[in-house]
Design goal:
Blueprint (H helix, E strand, L loop, with lengths): L7 E4 L2 E4 L10 H5 L3 E2 L2 E6 L2 E5 L1 H14 L8 H14 L6 E9 L13 E8 L7 H6 L1 E5 L20 H13 L4 E5 L5 E4 L3 E6 L2 E4 L11 H12 L4 E3 L4 H5 L3 E6 L3 E8 L2 E2 L7 H14 L10 E3 L2
Helix pairs in contact: 2-3
Bound molecules: 4'-deoxy-4'-aminopyridoxal-5'-phosphate (PMP).
The site of 4'-deoxy-4'-aminopyridoxal-5'-phosphate has 16 residues, from helix 6 and strand 14.
Amino acid sequence: MPITPTDKIWMDGELVDWAKATTHILTHTLHYGTGAFEGIRAYPTDDGVAIFRLREHIERLLASSKILMVDVPFSVDELVDACIKVVAVNKLDDGCYLRPLVYLGYGEMGLNPLPCPVSVAIAAWPWGTYLGDEGVAKGVNMKISSWQRHDPNAVPTAAKGTGMYINSSLAKVEAIKAGYDEAILLNPQGHVSECTGENLFVVRGGRIITPPSSGAGALEGITQDTVATIAADLGYELSFENLVRTDLYVAEEAFLTGTAAEVVPIRAVDDRVVGDGTPGPITKAIQSTYFAAVRGQLEQYRHWLTYAS
Ligand code: PMP
């Protein structure tokens, strides 16, 4: 997905011109993947542009950094304010995607990251649907990857660490080259973990089931948590349970969730069509409630919005 440049990027407390937001080639994180990041969306609402679940994203950024033993020199409040500033200064009133990044800078080389300077940057730009408008409307085709999700004792899957995404990239490339839209990764125990950048849900016997994030080696998705709340409010039964690949093949409905992807129906898994191949009623109800919630159209979910204009 191409990036549309905006005006300013926040770097360690300063607003820097987009084109000047660069770093040295010997930046530690570029070599060893020793950073943490977030993906956040802001949406237009009747009361101005609003960032969705901003504080939770920043808290996860600091939790990821803590897992990686990276001491971030900014507080949650400071980074929340910085995100608001980036959206406002770039006049992103129609909504945008925000990318906060914690990274280890120039100065030290070698595998001990502890002496490296820690920096934070926050960029934002307008971004359309991650899996395409048609995917959102009609569903996407998924492939179970031949790449396994990390064992949590090999790489901490609870952290959104930059280097860990080699695993997601490999799975994504494999799926695309094979003609699919997105990959599903199994964990070393053979249970369904998550997609390359999304959590996964199925409907079986009218019940919604999603893998138990950290227990299944998946990221604890903020959209997954949002959907769990919405599902309960809509009166659906939802549980966190392990799934195996055949649970996906015979599901009545399936969908994936992520900040970038939002809520996307799954049309088929490994060429087995899910349900009748069109988004099912539970998927559609959750998707439309999610889209209304992020746009501030539902009073009960407005506490998830941080206005930035
Ligand atoms: N799993 C992975 C591996 C991800 O990168 C993401 C995106 N952050 C998700 C799940 C979904 O998380 P969220 O809903 O918080 O965006």
